[in-house]
Design goal:
By secondary structure, this protein is an alpha/beta fold. The protein is 33% helix and 26% strand. The protein has a six-stranded mixed sheet with strand order 5-2-1-11-23-22. The chain has a four-stranded parallel sheet with strand order 15-14-13-19. The N and C termini lie far apart (50 Å).
Length: 432
């Protein structure tokens, strides 16, 4: 029987790994490759803030797992991992139900010889009172679309009003990391676009956006030379930026900071902190940390089972020579997927597995159509600061590189051409 590789999680890393392995091991019959995900389609997670603001139509940019599996010689199974039996080398999938609560797929088990867990992360609200009840999160396409619909509903209600009263909308974003910063800029752009399409009862200047950060500056995980210009640009756009402001409570209409400030908001987004999905916590004896990440060796094998690998945001991978783990970033997941595509072939051949070494190629932050800021890092160039149009082009290229890894060069070029043609016939903002 062929070596059975099961990959759980169809995010950027898991899907790229399944595609690579399908093209090599699956196509040649060296191994059977199976991808498991609880959704039928994939959208690149770094774009979810654009889905929330409406500047990206998720239906146009989604990838279908069933079709991708057919084209790339792997199998797809719809399901959500709920348990693990390491002794029997099986994972358990929970039953799947349709929108009416009728069972679509029963609970079942899948066997594996090599298991790869790439289930990503979810937002960590740190147990803040009221956050789970009153805040929206941007972990999934469905959550991003929910935010967009609520935003649009505010504008539609104002548009249908019969009075001349000036309408306003207030949005509070908790967390000034990449997601929070990029969402704030996209919402400012959305306010102008909605007014341009005639939904102008709420003027752009009457969308009040507050970005709240517990730390001393925006983009705390990135160099200050990036965070400084971003902070200034956000303030020029009219975004209220609050630093050293820890949210202690969220109510239906307000956020309350630890020092007693009350921030009124009709829409509240929590974009601070991450944690791995709760079901991973000590799953069948595997070692996890305080935020549920699986502890892995430099080979990306879990510390207590060499048959199980984990990578991406759900894995705590040490950085040699430091006391830190590999940061939860898209570029790390891409690098790890590339390594595992080689490692799993070597494992089947009984050879020694290589160790992962994180390479930081820099960071890019998009401020919608207004600007972009970042730095590129390389052996020849060192660290180069970018800002404006050039930084924006490099930012867009990251998504195109992701598409090339999944579709290949020719199909990606066709997608780019189709996107260019569609600009003349589609609205610049999703209006439904």
């Amino acid at each position: 029987m062929n070596h059975r590789i099961v990959i759980v999680g169809g995010g950027a890393g898991g899907l790229e790994l399944a595609t690579r392995l399908g093209k090599t091991l699956g196509k040649r019959g060296i191994a059977s490759v199976m991808l498991v995900d609880s959704n039928l389609t994939h959208i690149w997670k770094p774009l979810l803030h654009e889905v929330a603001a409406g500047s990206l139509n998720s239906s146009a940019d989604e990838l279908n797992y069933v079709a991708q599996a057919k084209w790339n010689h792997f199998e797809f199974q719809l399901g959500r991992m709920s348990g693990l039996d390491r002794e029997q080398k099986k994972i358990q999938l929970a039953a799947t139900y349709d929108e009416n609560g009728v069972e679509l797929l029963p609970a079942r088990e899948l066997g594996y010889d090599s298991l790869v867990i790439a289930v990503g992360s979810t937002t960590n609200d740190f147990g803040t009172q009221g956050a789970a009840q009153h805040c929206l999160f941007l972990d999934t396409r469905k959550q991003a679309e929910r935010f967009h619909q609520q935003l649009l509903n505010h504008y539609l209600r104002a548009h249908a009003g019969q009075t001349d009263t000036v309408e306003q909308i207030s949005v509070a974003i908790v967390g000034a990391g990449a997601t929070g910063v990029e969402l704030a800029a996209e919402l400012h752009n959305a306010a102008h676009e909605l007014a341009a399409y005639g939904l102008d009862r709420i003027k752009p200047e009457n969308m009040h956006i507050t970005l709240i950060e517990a730390g001393p500056r925006v983009l705390p995980a990135l160099p200050e030379r990036i965070g400084g210009p971003v902070h200034k640009t956000l303030e020029k756009l009219g975004v209220r930026v609050m630093t050293n402001a820890s949210v202690s409570e969220v109510t239906a209409d307000n956020l309350v900071t630890a020092d007693g400030q009350v921030i009124a908001a009709s829409l509240k987004v929590w974009a601070a902190g991450i944690r791995a999905p709760g079901f991973l916590k000590d799953i069948d004896g595997l070692e996890t940390n305080r935020i549920n990440q699986l502890q892995v060796l430099p080979t990306l094998q879990t510390t207590r089972d060499e048959n199980i690998f984990a990578f991406g945001d759900c894995a705590a991978c040490p950085q040699p020579g430091t006391d830190r783990n590999v940061p939860p970033r898209a570029q790390a997941a891409h690098q790890q997927a590339s390594l595992l595509a080689k490692s799993l072939k070597l494992r089947i051949e009984g050879k020694t597995l290589p160790e992962y070494r994180y390479t930081d190629y820099g960071s890019l932050i998009s401020l919608s159509r207004f600007s972009a800021v970042g730095n590129l890092m390389g052996n020849l160039t060192g660290s180069v600061m970018l800002e404006g149009w050039l930084a924006r082009m490099f930012y867009v290229s990251l998504y195109r590189m992701h598409q090339m890894a999944l579709y290949g060069t020719f199909r990606t070029l066709m997608l780019m051409l189709g996107s260019r043609i569609g600009r003349g016939t589609d609205p610049r903002l999703k209006l439904h």
